[in-house]
Amino acid sequence: MELKNSLSQLASRASQLKDKLMTEEATKNALIMPFLQALGYDVFNPLEVVPEMDCDINKKKGEKIDYAIIKDGEPIIVIECKHWQQDLDIHKAQLSRYFVATKAKFGILTNGIEYRVYTDLVNPNLMDEIPFLVFDIEHLRDSQIESIKKFSKEDFDIEKIMGSANELKYMTELKKLIKDIIENPTPDFVKSLAKNIYSGKFTENVLTQFSELVRKAAASYINDRIAERLNIAVKTAEEDQKQTDTQKVEIPGSKKQEIVTTQEEQEAYYTIKAILRAKVAGERVFMRDAMSYCAIILDDNNRKNICRLYFNNENNLRIEFVDADGNSERIHIDSIDEIYNYSDRLLSIVERYL
């Protein structure tokens, strides 16, 4: 949990500062050194972290790696850093040379936002072409945090990391392939699916039609799976925190009235948290229910209003957005799933507060 909180703070820091980082050195100081510190390393102790370590190989002199993490007097991780706007693809060969020269077991190529972690799964002592772990510090998933934790000073264990590196590598590549297939299905893939439900001739028009249907069906299936998981989360929250579902408020001069947080409001709350996870950690998104609406806010701060849910009439679900000028707009939705249609709007609102 401590690492997760540290990385969440670093993600916020990166979003706030990156546009002001004009040089590679500024990127290292503002983003990369804090990342190493989050992993528990003392960046000012040369027995743990060596900056600008010599990586001379053969007759080539003056080669230096930005950082080397040391254990028992030997480098175990070498880190090559670039400016946060740099494309990392063109610098992989440079890290590969340093990897061989230092005989480190792991190499990290980073611009402070994206991290690519390599090892030598294919040929011993030669850095693989494909990283086994890739993550964006601003959009971390829990599974990635668990993988990152294995590189912390406290948990570092080469055998454990190598045990999962092979699986992570192929999982990463397979997810890329699946993403490409879903977003841009090949004609062969479309035909292989469509032939199970369509017996006619595959003309160009039919292929175009089914290509679009495959994309839509895949997106719908993914949304359904997300909704299922959110429903499970809602039910768990209801069981664990029943005392928060119904709150009592007293209005002067009247009888006590109940504020009831409905299942639809809970589902919408978890849906919005899932959407905003692309920008902020889930624990920063709060729900405050009131008599006439349910507010979704950032950092438990009423001044950081993300949206309001008007769900008191189950036949008239409405979501309200307020722009930077204070103008509000209430939009009718037919189902909770429709909130995903406003993902960009929700994310842009949160960006204002960041």
Low-confidence stretches: 243-251
CATH class group of the largest domain? Alpha Beta
CATH topology of the largest domain: tt1808, chain A
Assign an overall shape. Answer: globular
- Average pLDDT over all residues: 85
Largest sheet: 6 strands, mixed
Give the proportion of residues in helices: 40-55%
Structural class by helix and strand composition: alpha+beta
Please count the beta strands (DSSP E, at least 2 residues each): 13
- Helix and strand sequence: HHEEEHEEEHHHHHEEHEEEEEH
Query: How many individual domains?
Result: 2
Range of strand content: 15-25%
Calculate Rg over CA atoms. 25 Å
How are the strands of the biggest sheet laid out side by side?
1-2-3-4-5-6
Rounded to the nearest angstrom, the distance between the terminal CA atoms is: 22 Å
CATH architecture of the largest domain: Alpha-Beta Complex
Q: How many helical elements?
A: 10
Question: What can you see in these coordinates?
Answer:
By secondary structure, the chain is an alpha+beta fold. The chain has 10 helices and 13 strands. It has a 6-stranded mixed sheet. The relative contact order is 0.07.
Architecture blueprint of SSEs:
Blueprint lengths: L1 H16 L6 H15 L10 E6 L9 E8 L2 E8 L10 H11 L3 E5 L3 E5 L14 E4 L5 H8 L8 H26 L3 H8 L9 H37 L1 H4 E4 L7 E4 L2 H14 L8 E5 L4 E5 L6 E6 L6 E6 L5 E6 L9 H11 L1
Parallel strand pairs: 3-4
Antiparallel strand pairs: 1-2, 2-3, 4-5, 5-6, 7-8, 9-10, 10-11, 11-12, 12-13
Helix pairs in contact: 1-2, 6-7, 7-9
